[in-house]
Amino acid sequence: MGAPSGVLVVDKPRGPTSHDVVARVRRALRTKAVGHAGTLDPMATGVLVVAVGEATKLVLYLTAADKAYEATIALGVATATLDADGDVTARAPVPDDWPARLDAALAAERARDAQVPPAFSAIQTNGVRAYDLARRGEAVDLAPRPVRVVDLTALAARRDPPAVDLAITTAKGYYVRALARDLAAALGTVGHLTALRRTRSGAFTVAEAAPLDDGLAARLVPLPDAARRALPIARLTPAGVIDARAGRPVAAADLAVEGAAALVAPSEHGAEEEGARPYAWLDEAGDVVAVGAVASDGRGRVLRGFVPGA
Hints:
Elements: E1 6-12, H1 18-29, E2 34-36, E3 45-52, H2 59-64, E4 67-75, E5 77-79, E6 88-91, H3 98-110, E7 114-115, E8 124-125, E9 128-129, H4 130-135, E10 145-146, E11 149-159, E12 162-170, H5 176-186, E13 191-201, E14 204-205, E15 221-222, H6 223-230, E16 233-236, H7 238-245, E17 255-257, E18 276-282, E19 288-295, E20 300-305
Parallel strand pairs: 3-13, 16-18
Antiparallel strand pairs: 1-3, 1-15, 2-3, 4-12, 4-13, 5-6, 7-10, 8-9, 11-12, 13-14, 16-17, 18-19, 19-20
């Protein structure tokens, strides 16, 4: 029997790193072919999509998907890491009228198209991880990075102690810890993240997430199902399967895009080729043959091939 392939939707607890979760899955399933689709900080909980075996070839596309969170931001206290795990670096008064200013501050954040990442992040600067520089007490100067806020809503605002609960959906690359810093500044104070729970990662939700316990293999989302949820679908004819398995270009006549999938923009799924859209290519039985780019003229090119029967 071959190594397992599929996707685990893990409900990560507070404490372990995303790498810790991957290591646990590797041990449990006895395979090194494990990766995750979007880091959660140790303090954060919720949906961590873990790809196993051949499904690791989907990580690029799983990671590119929008993610949804519920977050709590405490006002009046700043920390080095911008969350509750960091040392306190500053305290500031919280204006009495901050709840009245919240709507305008949220509107500005919804319109944000660039964000300065936290100093404690994995971004490299001159070949060194930013968090390594920050831990050594060195100055970290990170350039703003493009971001996109899909939705941002206040769930509750409390005065004593001052804090706000938020629901937020963002595109890849957005730091909710940086939101705590920036929203607090817009309200005239400082702040940090005290709770963060990811409720959705792409098509995978917290309702289907399970704890890290025994029986992980039985909870694997099969590779074909995971591929259908990660990417739009294209169907191959038998001749198209032969070409795709051989890594050859696939003629438009041997490749049919399903339904509204043709309308999906390349940027929404991490396209690797200008003017082409990535799709999960399935054979007539519904098994995954490849992830392939489909050009505007309908022709296909293999990006990642899959082992038959995975």
